[in-house]
Amino acid sequence: MISLREELSGNSYPGRGIVVGKSADGTKAVTAYFIMGRSVNSRNRVFVTEGEGIRTEAFDPALLSDPSLIIYAPVRVLGNRTIVTNGDQTDTVFEGMKAGQTFEESLRVREFEPDAPNYTPRISAVLNVGNGNYDFEMSILKSDDGDPDACNRFTYSYSNPKAGVGRFIHTYMEDGNPLPSYKGEPTVVEIAGNIDEFTDLVWNSLDEDNKVSLFVRFIDIATGETETRIVNKNQ
Fold this sequence. Notes:
Elements: H1 4-9, E1 17-22, E2 28-36, H2 40-43, E3 45-50, E4 53-58, E5 75-78, E6 81-85, H3 89-98, H4 103-106, E7 122-130, E8 133-144, E9 147-159, E10 165-170, E11 187-190, H5 195-205, E12 211-220, E13 226-232
Antiparallel strand pairs: 1-2, 1-10, 2-12, 3-4, 5-6, 6-7, 7-8, 8-9, 10-11, 12-13
């Protein structure tokens, strides 16, 4: 287990990232999702609340040049399941699970983003919280070492997560051209503090020039009650 602060502050461009785990006191399911950007189009975004989830929105509509990969609902809720992704596959997972598919099955119809030469991975997670129980799954769909004709699919399942421990997966290993896709299993990171302390830790650890927005949610495992924080660089 490593420090999330050190992992983020040591990487100027992890891209988009998802953290899922359990609070240090063992009572809350925890998730965080952040977006970063290098272009004007990518940086021109904010998170806004939509139902029980959130949606990305152009901060200045006049600067929006291509909405195809940047405007989507990163978070949706289906019963006791909270879906978090870095693209419009949130809707794919939502509809698939609503129809009785598993998390993994619902993502079989999707692959990495069509943004050559980066072929940005699609990263996704689902938190299952109900009747005092909690487990979660994470997924990454990525090109086979930059080959657009081959998609590698990985799904990770975590039952009875440990208190104070999270898993972190993001789109890029580091800045570059093309951007190198994330490699390996989700990174084991520490989750510490209450929701405000955790939100501050993540936001303040992201690169000041490239960070755009952050969503954090704590879900009470016993009651299902939620607390949410949204931070937008554009105000």
